[in-house]
Design a protein that fits this description.
Helices cover 20% and strands 47% of the residues. It is an alpha+beta fold.
Length: 200
């Protein structure tokens, strides 16, 4: 599964490189749009994400679980691939998702679907039982032995604030509500996430 995710990430990055090469713009170059007065300014979240293809940030909750790092690749202004890694008490996580943005200005809604895997860490001083979600989907033996791999399918919606102008253009704050369905136990649980992303 990890090799599949790495392959998807490579192919996605290659596609973004191919798009940016057509405009002689590297994906790692800061892409900007300025008004007549020299101020960076975008009319909508779609226009911002048309210029800025790559977002990096931090998040807590949601698919990440604990605290993690997120990568967002804008395939189109309305659609993006999301990747993330995270960690919590006695577990680590990674996820991949598809995000659909709806056009708006500063406040814009989105929907998201994805897959996440939360698996045991090597820590012996902490227990996964302190995590409410893992405590509900794992058996007592899995928690006691600290050997587990919880697989979640997720779907939800969120709202994000997009900074469209000035020196901080590209900063994005978001909050989301998700439903996690654990594949082995067939248990469905609500969760929420918060984070900040900078689109480059």
């Amino acid at each position: 599964m990890k090799s599949l995710i790495l392959t998807l990430a490579f192919l996605t990055t290659s596609a973004v490189f191919a798009q940016t090469e057509q405009t002689n713009q590297s994906v790692f170059s800061k892409s900007q749009k300025f008004d007549k007065e020299g101020v960076e300014l975008y009319d909508s979240n779609y226009e911002l994400k048309k210029y800025k293809k790559l977002g990096l940030g931090i998040a807590t909750g949601g698919l990440t679980g604990g605290l993690g790092l997120n990568l967002e690749v804008n395939i189109q202004p309305e659609d993006a691939l999301t990747f993330g890694i995270g960690a919590g008490k006695a577990y680590n996580s990674f996820h991949i998702g598809w995000k659909h943005n709806y056009e708006a200005a500063y406040l814009s809604p989105y929907t998201k679907v994805g897959y996440a895997n939360w698996f045991n860490s090597n820590s012996t001083s902490e227990s996964a039982s302190s995590n409410d979600i893992l405590n509900r989907v794992l058996t007592k033996n899995q928690i006691k032995e600290n050997k587990f791999s919880a697989n979640f399918l997720a779907a939800g919606m969120g709202l994000e604030y997009n900074q469209l102008e000035g020196d901080l253009a590209g900063v994005n704050f978001f909050g989301e509500l998700m439903v996690l369905g654990e594949l082995n136990s067939s248990i469905y649980l609500p969760t929420a996430g918060l984070g900040v992303t900078y689109f480059y």
